[in-house]
Design goal:
By secondary structure, this protein is of the alpha/beta class. It is built from eight helices and four strands, in the order E-H-H-E-H-E-H-E-H-H-H-H. The chain folds into two domains: 11-113, Resolvase, N-terminal catalytic domain (Rossmann fold, 3-Layer(aba) Sandwich); 131-230, no CATH class.
Length: 231
């Protein structure tokens, strides 16, 4: 008698996302996502039945490829597979879309996350966005009240007044950036981070860019942000 065939592994529908048109054209970021998805599917003994790629257009509510991916999941009774959830954890609209989709999903970097987890993350992301907006507006208002001319003034040699304005504008920009980072530091502290290194690691894990646009935070950078926020 023939042995009973082994049950088929799970079917996945992959969803990839990049931030800019340039990344979409060059494949920057997509290859790593594809590799993560392939590893996860293979580890579960499953197959990727379909894949969808989204280039974020700047219109945060515009996720046509995600909608197609979710529809494909329903049609195939498949699981939505995302390469990285941590870098998307600040996008409340994306997270709420997942939470309300009514389909099973898994993130390769956070395989134990579920719809309840994502719903909580979405609420945190919305609150962080609200706090960031409020802090940024307050920092700009304070700079204007001090007479700071925001922007990039053109310096003329020997013009001390213009140079002072440029320094003030730079300071205002640094304060604005610190205000944007502060909510993530607050969230990391609530999660148990206490040292500068732990806070730096938390910012790096969340994908928060450094003041110079880098991906990895150092403790001294965190210290400078904390000092500015405390002023």
């Amino acid at each position: 008698m023939d042995p009973t065939p082994a049950p088929a592994g799970p079917r996945f529908v992959a969803y990839y996302r990049v931030s800019t048109d340039k990344q979409g054209r060059s494949g920057l970021g997509l290859e790593a996502q594809r590799e993560a998805v392939a590893r996860h599917a293979a580890g579960r003994g499953g197959t990727v039945a379909a894949a969808f790629e989204e280039v974020e257009s700047g219109r945060r509510g515009d996720r046509p490829q995600l909608a197609l991916a979710l529809a494909e999941c329903r049609a195939r009774r498949a699981v939505l597979l995302i390469a990285k959830l941590d870098r998307l954890a600040r996008d409340a609209h994306f997270l709420l879309g997942l939470e309300k989709a009514g389909v099973e999903f898994v993130a390769a970097d956070m395989p134990h996350a579920n719809r309840l987890t994502v719903g909580v993350m979405a609420l945190v992301a919305e609150e962080e966005a609200r706090m960031t907006s409020a802090r940024t507006k307050a920092a700009l208002a304070a700079a204007r009240a001090r007479g700071v001319r925001l922007g990039n003034p053109r310096l003329r040699p020997g013009d001390a007044t213009t140079a002072a304005d440029a320094r003030a504008a730079w300071s205002a920009g640094a304060a604005r950036r610190a205000a944007e980072v502060a909510p993530y530091l607050d969230a990391a502290r609530r999660a148990g981070a206490t040292t500068l290194q732990q806070l730096a690691d938390a910012l790096t894990a969340r994908g928060v860019r450094t003041p110079r646009g880098g991906e990895r935070w150092m403790p001294q950078q965190v210290r400078r942000v904390l000092d500015r926020v405390a002023r």
